[in-house]
Amino acid sequence: MYDVSTRKRAIALLSQGRSLNSVSRETGISRAAIRSWQDRLEPLPRMAAPLPDPPSDRVSYSYLLGLYLGDGCISPHPRGGHYLRIACADAWPGLIDACEAAVRTISPAHTAYRVQAVGYVSVVGYYPHWPRLFPQHGPGKKHQRRIVLEPWQQAIVNEHPWEFIRGLIHSDGCRIINWTEKTVRGERKRYEYPRYFFTNLSGDIRGLFTDTLDKLGVEWTYCTRNGIPFNISVARKASVTLMDTHVGPKY
Predict the structure, then answer these.
(1) What average pLDDT does this structure show over 127-139?
(2) Residues 172, 214 within the same domain
């Protein structure tokens, strides 16, 4: 694509009586291009790529949305379009596989690849319109700006809430075994119990997590860090059983 000033220079050389061959040799521009500029100097508008509809695979999208809100980012390609990147720890190969499958499913090109870094893998997909599929994209860090779901995104989360919760846990959560000691009839005993945690600096993203848990009947509490409620805990037995049934530990 030649700019207008380049086109004007080529036409000016022609107006001096130069031949198409000589102008082409001097400028390195094809004769056909220079000939076409004699009729139209301004570049023709480029055809825009079609804008995407909401994803048809709503289950995979709900899961990928959770991953994106936790550990994802969108960055521009130098020549146009965008990359979606989801960071996945090396410790969870099953998570990496599930993330790649979700990116391949949602990407219209059905492609994804992995980039190894120290301690983690970035699952990457290229697509011109990722920001339209994830309109939470914007300048700066997620916890420093407003994060709100579009109505069509909320509708998908309402249809497939467990996939959304699973994506959030797989990105910024974990299942651990807590323990405590109690004295029973003079004997000190150790008790262990499972617990889920979700940690995110964004109050908006934590709110999306807890609002969805409320709709699913999962009880949760805040665990503060230096007085700041970054952590969400799910520890009650019935709620942990629900989480185990629909989410489970990372693998």
Answers:
(1) 90
(2) yes
